[in-house]
Amino acid sequence: MATLIIVGAQWGDEAKGKLVDVLGSQAQYVVRYSGGNNAGHTVIVGQETFKFHLLPAGILHPEVTAVLGGGMVVCPKSLLEELDRTRAARSELGRLAISPAAHVVFPYHRLLDQLEEEARGDDKIGTTSRGIGPAYTDKVQRTGIRMGEFVDPTVFPRRLEAVVQVKNRLLELFGGSPLSAKDLHDEYAAYAARLAPFVTDTDALLQDAIVAGERVMFEGAQGTFLDLDHGTYPYVTSSHPTAGGACLGTGVGPRAIDAAIGVCKAYTTRVGSGPFPTELHDETGETIRRQGHEYGTTTGRPRRCGWLDLHALRYSARVNSLSGLALTRLDVLSGLPRLKVATGYRLDGAELRGLPVLARDWERVEPVYDEVEGWEGDIRSAKALSDLPAAAQRYVRLVEEAAGTPIVVLSIGPDREETIVLRPDAFWG
Ligand code: GDP
Predict the structure, then answer these.
(1) Where are the domains of the chain?
(2) Nearest residue (CA) to ligand 1, atom 8
(3) Ligand 1 environment, Cβ below 6 A
(4) Alpha-carbon Rg of the chain, whole angstroms?
(5) Best label site of 114, 192, 267, 351, fewest CB within 10 Å?
């Protein structure tokens, strides 16, 4: 087994960072395949905390090649800042490779993101205002500027000039100020010169690595229910965080993927607007937010908190064809006397087999809950499943059975040590 996808099984922020860091240290290639700097991973190594938005967390390991795949949209300024910041903390980093097919995020994307979100009034999507949606819009509209063009000084000025003319008309339409193509070029040409050495044929790089049997880990950003096609549209991101996105966003075909691990919190959170059937608006939700420090890495926004949604998780296991689950943040639930888990949805009195498609139905579904006993005390020092209180063990088994997918890792605290690997052969076995 040499190729492994790590994917968020919920609405993002499932604490993928730790798993990605641990497994990435054992891989030769760590690959981001979708999204941009609207994602965020926190990795704690000893006393140091690293926050990644664009770089795959695997870059912390000098022997790893960190790849930004063609399915991504990359803000050059943010990428360089992140690279400089990480280099300042660590003298030795992994190699960086950027796909020439990735699209570039420019300031007009950010401005349009903000202006369009404002114009939505009460129907805000809850974007991170980083220009990600507008950059993907350009990609679909076939007017986007790709990395390969960006780092080519004979192409970039001409492409930018043409695009800025159109963007300025749009900016004015939304009440914004036009941008100077020259100023933009001068600033961004300097970024392009710095990034040029990293732009390389990543498809070929990964193809060769896979043929040679090297370990390739695909690092998912966001989560399944934020997927443009499989999420709670329109309250979704503009790309494909699901496992299928790893193929589209890197050029690696589906049969070359050996395993897909879904990362799932022991409860549910969501940032921004959109349907969230098991959301808690009461004291329990507040307790989970407080105990779990549930505030966004990218925006600092308080996360909406709720019970674990096993009905949604079942779908997630299917759409990502998960081979295993990593259940995280089990420690956060300690001290809650009773826990609820959603086992199904009802809509207009009838039980749903799958998930709703339209947001308006997502908003109307009523979760069917099972109630189980909680547990007391700090579980962070447990070294094996059997060290956990009996009720916590039952909770783990309940999730596994409902999802129909084995739990391969349990995370019971932020530290690398606070991890129980239940099935070591699920990864690179
Ligand atoms: P990601 O984008 O999916 O990696 O999620 P975030 O980075 O936004 O959230 C991860 C946060 O949870 C970081 O601060 C981690 O150190 C922390 N964390 C990871 N695993 C656990 C866990 O099992 N329990 C607790 N309490 N915190 C954890």
Answers:
(1) 3-101+197-259, 103-195, 264-428
(2) 13
(3) 13-18, 40-42, 44, 297, 328-329, 331-332, 411-414
(4) 22
(5) 351
**Does residue 348 come out as left (phi exceeding 0), alpha (psi in the -120 to 50 range) or beta?**
left
The pTM is what? Answer: 0.94
Q: What is the CATH number of domain 264-428?
A: 3.90.170.10
* Cβ contacts of 189 within 8 Å, gap of 6 or more: 153, 156, 157
How close is the Cα of 294 to the center of ligand 1, in Å?
A: 9
Evaluate whether the domain defined by 3-101+197-259 bears CATH number 3.40.440.10: yes
Residues in the chain: 429
- Separation between Cα atoms, residue 273 and residue 121, nearest integer Å: 13
Catalytically active residues are 13, 41
296: tokens are: 């966004």
Does position 128 have pLDDT exceeding 80, yes or no?
no
Helices (runs of H) and strands (runs of E) counted in the chain: 13, 19
pLDDT in tens, 167-184: 999 999 998 899 999 999
Structure tokens at 121: 């009034």
Specify whether domain 103-195 bears CATH 1.10.390.10: no
From 73, 192, 57, 68, select the one nearest 128 (Cα to Cα): 73
The predicted-structure confidence for 19-59, as pLDDT tens digits, reads as follows 888 888 899 999 999 999 988 777 877 788 888 899 998 89
Contact in structure between 184 and 159 (CB atoms under 8 Å): no
Q: Which two tokens stand for residue 393?
A: 């063990």
What is the distance between the alpha carbons of residues 36 and 38, in angstroms, rounded to a whole number? 5
Q: Which of 6, 7, 11, 18 to mutate to test the pocket of ligand 1 (most atoms within 8 A of CB)?
A: 18
Which atom of ligand 1 is the closest one to the Cα of 297? Answer: 8
265 C-alpha to ligand 1 centroid (Å): 9
Angle ∠(380,385,390) on CA atoms, nearest 5: 90
> Is it true that the peptide bond before 241 is cis, omega within 30 degrees of 0?
no
